[in-house]
Amino acid sequence: MTLSSLSMRNAKRQARDYLVYFVTIIITAALIYAFNGLVFSQEMRVLSKMMSTMPLIIVLASLVVVCIISWLVQYTTNFMLSRRSRELGTYILIGLENKQVAKMFFQENLIVGGAALVPGVLLGNLVYQALRALVLALFGKAYHFSFVFSMPALGLTLAYFLLIYLLAQRKSRKRIRSMKIYDLIYFERRNEEAAIQNGVRRKRAFIVSIVLGIAGTVFIMAGDLAIGIIGAGMIIAFLYGFFASFASGVPAYFEKHAEKKYGGQTLLVFRTLSAKLAAMGVLMATISLLFTATIISEGTGLIFRFIFENRYEQNACFDLMISTQNPQAEYFRDTVDFIEERIPSECSWEYNICLRDSAEDSRILSKYIKEEMWIPEFYSSDAVMAFSDYAALREILGYPAVTLEPGTYLLQCQKYIASALKDWNQPIPVGDTVLEFGGIQTEIFAQYLWNVNGGEYILVVPDEIAETCVVDHRMYSIKTPEHMGDDFYEEVKTRFRDKIEGYKDDEGVLFYIRSEDEKEMASSIATIVFPLYYLALVLTMTAATILTIQQLSETERYRRQFSLLHKLGMGKTDMQNALRKQFTIYYAMPVLPSLIISGAFILNLANLTDPGSLYGAGGPLMVLAVTLALFFLIYAIYIVMAYTTMKRNVLP
Asked: Which among 147, 235, 450, 594 could disulfide-bond with 292, CB atoms 3.0 to 4.6 Å apart, if both were Cys?
């Protein structure tokens, strides 16, 4: 049998024995190819100018993925080397040279990578179609399936995989070429010893690691970059210190509490796990760090997505808005006349936004709201709108008609503001008149941007009262008929930009086009959120794959163990419970610290956003819940797969 045929046979066996690793490499290849497809897609680039940055961001994300997968391949290769060291030593014993064995080992791993690349690219075409459909849906474009095989994407994917395997295999090749027969044959017996043997040092290390974890989490949440970097270093020290001391501490704990060993399957479960953790302390800390990065990446992506979507929805009720503090300016009057010549009169409205100028209290509402939450101060006084203008705008938007009783005012505000005003019923002076509270309306009313329909909220007052108030800016808002397409908006924008040259910047000019805002929102999600999900998925699969490989590698030992227990009289139910507990603790260990750290980080990051950016279905708690649901959905697949395989193979 030649070395090539031996490499092929071993590669087939490797793909079968390490199926979870092989499948992970296939999925990774599919993701890399699919995102490379977006990089080279001309269809994506023409959707928006902002999409021009997407190829660079995806390439940067892919380089991070290459580093992560290189580590996975290197770890798995070294793990295979330790498990097959006796076999490789036997090859040298029967006459092969070290360099021939190293070459054979390199070839079989390269064959596995190539075998994963082929189905990965085929699957990647389907993943690319899914990504393409999502991006087109964000831009409101129709999706039509069209099979596209991108040679540049394939070439870049192939280059990434060559880089991954060359980086990963270099160390194992060097090790095999330099190891003696004795070292190879007994390499499998080498284990990582407990990092901290001394009980006093172990206890101190555990306490110090907990303190570092708490301090690091607080530092990360501080919001300062330098302090956050220090906090990240503390978190890393915490994870490695925690697992080093914890793995050493389990046997010590049961030595002092011997009576707790013998309840249920405790002795069996913790004897097995303590031995495993002692050999995996550093690895467990690394995996926990990967899980922390995974959850933070997913949560950050979800936060950005909700921010982009909520900001867009707050202003998307109108198709076009123009405002200025100089209503007689040529750029304003010419643009308004140009639009009104082309659209029906019932689709647009021109009106004033005024300020309530009261010497007693110019911002009585905002001060009341600030007792419950922080809000930005857009104006020096509470914004005011005449009721006739308000009624006309509601009719344009298709909202139900409302009434305003004489001597009263209405509050039109965003929903999150209404929650702070649930007990509000105070009268407000407007000019020389005191108006009583008449109710709250919370429909979307373009109240997020500067110089629109009030900052977060606006007072709706009788027309005669509004006429006595100081005008802050003049607005022109339209909701155009469906037949007015992008060409119309582009013509309006060009005309407006041409006219505004030469005017001062302090005239409070706003020019808003909903379709452009929609493209900006879609571009932001595609260029920021998608790569974050990409990284999170690869991180999750990498960490879960390593955990699963480690667990399934113990199949033979578990089989012998449970076979002996069966002969000694242990029932099948007790053995299943023991196996289930071992799996639960084993897979929970690296996740629990990650949940605490990343959960605190995500909640803090969500609360640092502008008020109203994350509200209702996109609130901080919902962000955290969805993030954890996505994470555990993927993680559970690996757990169930490993448990089912182990249960089938080890229980008598």
From this structure: 594
